[in-house]
Task: inverse folding
């Protein structure tokens, strides 16, 4: 297939946004997937498609598109955060924790390290969970609840 003309592409993206707003995420994902199939391939399009697939409960498709978005644009925090969510929903908790840790290392914040701690705990990595929680407590923006939580741990 050849790429669609820009006006048609814009109209279809507008339709996809409207469908998404109305809760028809599968239909929106199909529109983005059609655009992907016609040759317009970018990290942002992959992320749009992945997000709609994830909202539609189509986790394997979401994973494929998020992985493609991260491959094309490794520094895209939105795509990487989406990948963490999709991995977690797919039951790949250890991979989700590893990806979240990479994201937290690149853009440290207390909340991201707390997420890493929780994902590591769920995957059975207690030592890694405690370490991530300590990093959360030391991060900028850490609230007293992290200090209290560390004391509890």
Result:
């Amino acid at each position: 297939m050849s790429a669609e003309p820009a006006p048609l592409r814009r109209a279809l993206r507008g339709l996809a946004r409207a469908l998404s707003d109305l809760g028809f995420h599968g239909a929106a994902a199909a529109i983005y997937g059609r655009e992907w199939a016609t040759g317009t391939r970018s990290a942002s399009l992959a992320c749009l498609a992945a997000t709609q697939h994830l909202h539609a409960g189509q986790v394997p498709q979401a994973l494929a598109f998020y992985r493609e978005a991260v491959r094309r644009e490794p520094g895209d925090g939105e795509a990487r955060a989406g990948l963490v969510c999709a991995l977690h929903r797919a039951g790949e908790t250890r991979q989700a924790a590893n990806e979240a840790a990479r994201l937290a290392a690149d853009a440290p914040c207390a909340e991201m390290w707390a997420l890493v701690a929780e994902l590591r705990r769920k995957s059975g990595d207690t030592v890694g969970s405690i370490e991530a929680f300590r990093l959360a407590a030391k991060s900028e923006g850490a609230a007293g609840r992290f200090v209290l939580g560390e004391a509890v741990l």
The chain has a mean pLDDT of 88.
